[in-house]
Amino acid sequence: MAVGRVKLLQLTPLILLLIAASTSAAPLPGGFKHSGWFQFEVIVLVDARSEVLESETWPLLPKVGYPSRWRWLRDPNTAETLSAQYPDATVTQSAAGHTLIRPRPPAPPLWQAPPAVLTEGDLALIDELLELGLGNDTQNLPEPTDESADLVPAAQPDSAPLLPFEEIIPEAPASPLLALESLGMDPISTEDQLPPVSVPFAPEAPNTDLEPIIASAKPIPMPASFERLPLKQLAPGLARYRRNNEDEVVEAVSWLQGPGSDVLPILLEPAEDNAYPSVQGFVQLLPRGDTWRLGLNFWVSTSGYYLPDIFEMDAPPPSPARTTILPASDALEAPDRPQWPGRHLIHIADTIPLAENRLRYFDHPVIKVLALWRELSWYELYALGVSQRDA
User: Fold this and answer.
1) Cα–Cα nearest to 343, from 65, 61, 64
2) Which helix (H) or strand (E) is 22 found in, with range?
3) Rounded CA gap, 141 and 138, in Å?
4) For the segment 168-179, what is each residue's pLDDT rounded down to a tens digit?
5) Do the domain assignments include residue 301?
6) Residue range 211-227, pLDDT digits in tens
């Protein structure tokens, strides 16, 4: 029975090439570390040669399946290509990387009344009603008469016009007596008043014109999360490895994810228009303190020629569709389940720890996975955000 092995110290040719590429990389430019943004690079390789498949005894009935929630890595080039391919449709890409192609509905025809339905008098009446609705017709308003003018009270020169239900209340005449005189007391003469008190005040300062300071702040442009990017640190080593090895590259991809990102499994499968690509499966990154753990779940369909002819097993689930094309009508029919071309599966499922800037190699006779991650500096984060914004 084949079991996945994690090798750190065994220097295979692939490890030597990729470690040399990662150790020779320049240090991170700029300071301001701990931005909370991480860059991941993952390579998935498969070796399905006959001598490899016949060299092991594989489990007969592996159990495989997709999680209930997952995501694809978004590819902006795919949306542009499909928009050019379907000019009469609307192409949208969801946050989970699924692309939807929806035909644009035709414009409704302009309605025109048949000539036999409305007469010229009916049309004239409709136009008159429209004018009345807009409030523009003042020809038929009644002229003001003398009787109606008497109903409106005359405007007072020192007050606002009165409404019909208001009345004028005459002001009370001012009393000629002072308050003290009304009580039988003599008013206080100005001669008995106390002298005024002089309070010193500071000299009046001249007016100072203050000019307001206008400060503007712009947010740092953030790069896109979970968007397909080319390899960076592992690219040179992978190019040298492919020149000397026959392993098939299933996926070689990089992506960024910021603080607070979800931990949904990420499907890493060949971009083929096939329900059963050569390799199916996903990875899942789980934070563990200052590091990450990488969950692996992949399976390879084979013809099963190394098994007896009477062997049978249930077909695995097909790969979820990356693109959905909606028909012109809303009546959607459930597609038929595609036929599985294989007879047997070779499956791996494991979880491996990851350390920053240290290449991790999952070694398996058929399926091999390499992973690397690092935290971006604030300088790199700003440069990536600006480059994506100006692209």
Assistant:
1) 61
2) helix 13-23
3) 6
4) 556 655 555 555
5) yes
6) 788 877 777 788 889 99
pLDDT band at 24 (very low <50, low <70, confident <90, very high): very low
126 found inside a domain: no
In this structure, which amino acid lies at residue 334? A
At residue 294, the pLDDT reads: 95
Q: Are 351 and 296 in contact (CB under 8 A)?
A: yes
Exposed, middle or buried by CB within 10 Å (0-12, 13-18, 19+), for 299? buried
Contact 67, 282 (CB under 8 A): yes
Cβ contacts of 261 within 8 Å, gap of 6 or more: 225, 226
Locate 131 and state its tokens.
């004018």
How many domains would you assign to the chain?
Answer: 1
Residue 131 lies in a domain: no
**Which residue has tokens 């523009």?**
136
pLDDT interval class at 27 (50, 70, 90): very low
Domain hosting 288: range is 34-73+222-319+345-389
Q: How far apart are CA 18 and CA 14, in angstroms?
A: 6
pLDDT for residue 9 is more than 50: no
Torsion of CA 47, 48, 49, 54, to 10 degrees: 110
For residue 302, the SS3 value is: strand
| pLDDT tops 60 at residue 113 | yes
Structural domain contains residue 267? yes
Closest CA to 241 of 229, 228, 255, 252: 252
Helices (H), 156-244: 179-182, 235-243
Structure tokens at 128: 């008159």
- Rounded to whole angstroms, the Cα distance separating 296 from 280 reads 11
Q: Please identify which residue in the block is written with the tokens 């040399």.
A: 20
* Bridge pairing between strands 99-103 and 323-325: parallel
> CA 38 to CA 225: how far, in whole Å?
10
**Which secondary-structure segment (H or E) carries 368?**
strand 367-375
How confident is residue 28, by pLDDT bands cut at 50, 70 and 90?
Answer: very low
Residues in the chain: 391
